[in-house]
Design brief:
222 residues; 86% helix; mainly alpha
Length: 222
Amino acid sequence: MKWPELKRMMSLNGNLFIRSLCFMVVYVGYTSLASRYGDEELAVSSILMKFFMFFSYFVDGFAYAGEALVGKEFGRSRADALNDKMSATGSLNDVVRLLFNWSIGVGLLFTAVYAVWGDECIALMTSDSGVIAAAKPYMGWLIAMPIVSALAFMWDGVFVGATAGVQIRNAMIWAALAFVIGYITTFSWWGPQALYIAYFAHLFARVAYLTVEWKKNYGENV
């Protein structure tokens, strides 16, 4: 093994470790904060997160494909890319656009499912009428979640494929900060709704940062 390659691998893993810690800030924070509003609100937040995660199993398939396909394109044009600030080739841009088309399509499908059968979905998870009633004010978040999450998950796959550890790390640092700031600035006015405002703030931060970074460093025409 050569030291430059080993150093690059260690740097990437270190950045991914920091990213994982930031994920814990968001997801552990989400559960911890929900518990402060009582058992019913905690049950609602847990059910909604289950549907957030259920959706992720579908769109993550395209994120994993993005890791493989983007990694393949970067490997193919590595020499030229390194001489041009790692700018993406036209082929890479096409791959990214195709992946986003598919992931957005899946997101829209789940948005439609949650919009039409959201109440039935909640009823599948619990028979407690109090919890079902308590979930109704948050159904808008469930409906909006798939399309926003699809963009965030897809960008994660693309940047992991590009082995862009710094951008991956920084995106989650900003996302964790957005979650904390989003909750702190809204909980006194919005109560439990602030929890979902904070969660969506973290998604928007990830999408915004990675979109800007991709356009700046890799694919201006994406």
